[in-house]
């Protein structure tokens, strides 16, 4: 049974981890760890405990939430030097919120089970603002007992929580489908903005008009204005979602689809667009910058 007031450790304070940790800390005691000391200090100033390592963060936690970028960072946080796995309390539950793919989630859960820990596979979607408001979509794979233990945290973060199945990896499978749609929609938005510029239309007018009609999507409405901003004078748009995240995620999508023998030609084409963006040096920039692969700055439309 979950404790009345579970102690939570959050490992990873990036674009999603930081607002999630902040949200959780409004109700529950939180310990945080990130390789960036300034991020830890920011949360510590708001009342969280600043841990010196993942192991330090996890040693007295009932729930350990991972909010890292990829499989390599997850393995380092859990199983690396001073990793959290070796310090977990008996019966502790690890919540995987990162998009790492079904196989990686199952392998991680198996390793944690050998240490007496439970795993809830709970990848999130929605972005930093919705994370701070507890308005995320969370898709979950995990044993019902482990899910019950994780509920105090998941209910704080999610406005929509879908239990996909009883095994770690089930949530990752549905998240891969989510990322297929998200990645294709961003790529389609980039093509639309690029075509608008090529036709001599004002991209801002095109985005504002079409976002309200049948051709609109969440990604078009969200990324479209940032694509327009990419061409404006001044600093680049704020990085809300790095382009190289979609290089990773679309790779997961195409790998999963190949394993299932399901053709995904649109996802494969979108993956190539993100790879071109990464090769062009855009990996650390906002994913909306992928539009410049199709319509470079200085091309038609720029003053």
Number of domains: 2
Largest sheet, if any? 6 strands, parallel
Discrete helix count: 13
Name the average pLDDT.
Answer: 95
What's the architecture of the largest domain in CATH terms? 3-Layer(aba) Sandwich
Q: How does the helix and strand content classify structurally? A: alpha/beta
Q: Going across the major beta sheet, what is the strand order? A: 3-2-1-4-5-6
Shape: globular
Q: Identify the CATH homologous superfamily of the largest domain.
A: NAD(P)-binding Rossmann-like Domain
Could you say what the CATH topology of the largest domain is called? Rossmann fold
Count of DSSP E strands?
Answer: 9
Distance between the termini: 63 Å
CATH class of the largest domain reads Alpha Beta
- In percent, how much strand structure appears in the residues? 5-15%
State the low-pLDDT regions, or none.
Answer: none
Order of helices and strands: EHEHEHEHEHEEHEHEHHHHHH
Query: Over the alpha carbons, how many angstroms does the gyration radius reach?
Result: 20 Å
The proportion of residues forming helix, as a percent range, comes to: 40-55%
Task: Report what the structure shows.
The protein is an alpha/beta fold and 303 residues long. It has two domains: 8-166, NAD(P)-binding Rossmann-like Domain (Rossmann fold, 3-Layer(aba) Sandwich), CATH 3.40.50; 173-294, N-(1-d-carboxylethyl)-l-norvaline Dehydrogenase, domain 2 (Orthogonal Bundle). It has helices spanning 17-25, 37-44, 54-58, 71-79, 102-114, 128-133, 144-157, 170-198, 203-210, 218-230, 243-259, 265-279, 291-294; strands at 8-11, 30-33, 49-50, 63-66, 93-96, 118-121, 124-125, 136-141, 158-165. It has a six-stranded parallel beta sheet with strand order 3-2-1-4-5-6, with helices on both faces. A three-stranded mixed beta sheet has the order 7-8-9. It starts with 7 loop residues before the first strand and ends in a 9-residue tail after the last helix.
